[in-house]
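Section handout, structural biology tutorial.
Before the tutorial, make sure you can parse a SMILES string by hand: atoms, branches in parentheses, ring closures as digits. In the record below the ligand is zinc ion, and the chain has 176 residues. In the tutorial you will relate the predicted structure tokens back to the input. Do not try to memorize them.
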Amino acid sequence: MSIPKTFIYCPKCSARALKPSSPKSIVCSECGFEYFFNPAAAVAGLIANDAGQLLVTVRAADPGKGSWDLPGGFIDPGETAEHALAREIFEELNLDVASMDYFGSAPNEYTYKGVTYSTLDMAFICHVADFSMMKALDDIEQAIFLPPESIDLDHFAFPSIRTFVERFIAAKREDS
Ligand SMILES: [Zn+2]
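Predicted structure of the complex:
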């Protein structure tokens, strides 16, 4: 279900009087409260080792349990995209990011407990100097390095992540 349809009562005055005011907002006809369903900002990291293999994670939880992903997650309020990604990579993989470069963005939909949220995923190329302390933690079942040419894009849970990996593989091919 889309988010606007999951809201029945006004969160401010409790009236059952919410109506769409645009494709991405609802307004309460009793008290005038208006809410905008802006996309949630999220980040993803493209990390390669010295051999040029891409670090791919296996998701331990739904949505997409068992499917492939890139490390990353949602940006907390007040946080920069770069800080959020470094934090997520440390929480999920116990890795320190030395530096990162912006790669691009792609919209995505994220269904959690029956409600579909819009997100904007931003990808960064992340440079990691030392992988010796790498562990699969948090919501990651496993972390694997894959040669770009052997990556099956259909294994990724989300279209935005698939797009990033596809662009990453194409850029690698142009380099070599
Ligand atoms: Zn109201």
